[in-house]
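Researcher: Please predict.
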Amino acid sequence: MKDQLLVYVQKLEKAINMPERKNSFGRDVATKIKQLSEDKNISSYLRASASLSLDRYFLLETNQIKKIELFSNAFEVLKSISEKRISVRNFSSKQVDIQKVIQAIEVAQQLPSACNRQPCEIIIIKNEQIKKELLDIHCGNTGFGHLAPLLAVITFDKNAFFQANESDSGPFMLESSVQDLF
């Protein structure tokens, strides 16, 4: 159900952004999104994403969408943030504000993914024993991994894709985009 909803949301978003649209371009898809969104097992994040897409669709249908101007300095801001990003191996013993971690995850959920299906889940690990077991499996953290106040385990749901060619680069692209964010 979740994966179907993601596909329909992606279809609607794609249709909204096409240069030339038919008058009734998304009616059936919008109806299906509304039906699938009513499932109680759909996450609040996905329900909100579907709702935003429906809102955009209905605004477009009623000619209420206007051209959105990006910040004139958006590139410079992004470049500045990117240039200041560093790899951390010397962790403080100070407690991590979990709300800041959640905010970072919310930003990560906005990163592009294949068909915007957002097939990853991020699990935060604070338990020292579980952290140790995970770090023992993962290579490349000797001498500093144990100092991290928490771990973010990122999983990828391969069932978010229905055909083999849809996810051919999914996990690899996911890793590169998420590692850069964190």
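Model: The first strand starts at residue 120 and ends at 125.
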